[in-house]
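Following up on my earlier message about adenosine-5'-triphosphate. Here are the inputs again, as you asked, copied directly from the submission form:
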Amino acid sequence: MIKKLASSVGEYKRPSALAALFVAIEVALEVAIPYLMSFIVDEGISKNNIRNVIIFGCVMIACAALSLFFGVLSARLAAKGSAGFAKNIRARVFGKVQDFSFYNVDKFSTGSLITRLTTDVNFVQFAYMLVIRVAVRAPLMLTVSIIMAFTLNAKLAVIFVAAIPILAIAMIILIKFGFPLFEKMFKKFDEMNSKVQENLIAIRVVKSFVRENHETEEFRKASAAVQRAQLKAEKVVVFGLPLFMFCIYACLLAILWFGGNLVISRTMTEGQLSSFIGYVQQILMSLMLIGMILINLVISKASIKRIVEVLDEAPDISDEHADPSLKVAEGSVEFKDVCFSYNKSDNYVLNDINFKINAGETVGIIGGTGSAKTSLVQLIPRLYDVQKGEILVGGKPVDKYTLRNLRDAVAVVLQKNVLFSGTIKENLKWGDENASDEEIAEACRIAQADAFIRSFPDGYDTYLGQGGVNVSGGQKQRLCIARALLKRPKIMILDDSTSAVDTATDAKIREGLRTKLKGMTVIIIAQRINTVKEADKIIVMNDGRIDAIGRHEELLATNTIYREVYESQQKGVE
Ligand SMILES: Nc1ncnc2c1ncn2[C@@H]1O[C@H](COP(=O)(O)OP(=O)(O)OP(=O)(O)O)[C@@H](O)[C@H]1O
Ligand SMILES: [Mg+2]
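Thanks, got it. Here's what our run produced:
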């Protein structure tokens, strides 16, 4: 798990390694200080030799200054290394999420992915910094100090050796109980972030239903759950510090007591005792630091696990079986005995779907809400994979094409479509990065968007807010159609994409698609019969199955569902 993440250190290995090295130098200088102290006491103060006090004092100051210098240097490098490490992890996770299919994203939920990309990475960054600074410092200091203490007085040194196993047992218990609690805490973080995200995306709906208080209450609950989970986890951790302090002071007391007796009985000098106490402090200090690292490793272990989960998730739609050189030759689409469910169970949303669309045909899909029209067309560009059966595009199974080649040939204007912040032109260029102004304008003319774009003071350079908030619903739909047209796809799928456009404009868009883009297969999902009336074929969907396929007149004569929808829509007209 840790190995997997460690590869993200990448180009920050150098600052990280240097940080560790400088810490080592810092420690070496630091442990010299108590030693010098014993010289000052025994050779200077006890012998009333002021010269020795000054000499050893100066050396001590130099050691302290140098150790400070290396300390600061290593802290800076550690900050650089850990921030870079975190940057690399974020880039890797984000890149991975880009490869996810809808199924993968639904599985994690967007809120959880956001927590993993932010909060979890922060914890890992902090733990990494601790590891390169403290994890070098503490054990090193511990070993050197123990050696020094034993050299000074082995009998006295046994006292704190007794304290070490007590601390170790306490640490193990802490980790065992702490880890699951931190895992739980992060789950609550996920829930809170999901709440925030949902609320912010739908803030207009919240306001129009005057649900602010309800939403605030929901958020308060989610936030309080985080607080509770955090408190519970921290409760275990806070035990650590007082326990350490207790051990430290107990050891100090014991050493002062026994050491004092040794000095009185003249088996130890005052200087030796004072430097011994210095080492004991350093030993216990490093034990405390080790404890602190362990606690942070517990927290970050939960985070590392969550990040690695994302990195380990296999994108369920990939180019595994694809032939990179294969391009979609023509725009035919065929479904053979297709069954599909969103959760990969046999609780199918689509059942036994069979039909063939020839290249260049215009096909309408009609059906009640929830009859799986969207689910059906999403399978063509492989936004999801089928559980049973096969889908052929241009005569070849969809998974034989790379996703790029397939999706370049199949443009979908999704029912829930979005624009991105940026100018209109930038948004349209998603369809084709190198499109010329004239090509862009031509696509917009077909999509009936050119006129309203030009009516804006900034025309094609009009800036769109996040999600395209500053254009109307119908305008947004037409921009999305133009964006898809710029891909010059072989197959164009419009999922209810003109629902917010008036009927006259709707007719003009279809007219434009038919006359200007001959040869392109067009699949139109619509609620209005008028939108699909002239199609070469109309597929009537009912509850995840195809109820009938035919032309308008045929269906009117033979299909009950189609006739009922048609009649109910005609009433208003007459
Ligand atoms: N992402 C999803 N995860 C799980 N189930 C889904 C998902 N999207 C849709 N469904 C389910 O699949 C069924 C068909 O939905 P679909 O969106 O295909 O209907 P539709 O015919 O496009 O409806 P509408 O006319 O309202 O757009 C519904 O019962 C819905 O609950
Ligand atoms: Mg739909």
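One observation from looking it over: The chain has two domains: 2-312, 333-573. Hope that helps, and feel free to reply on this thread.
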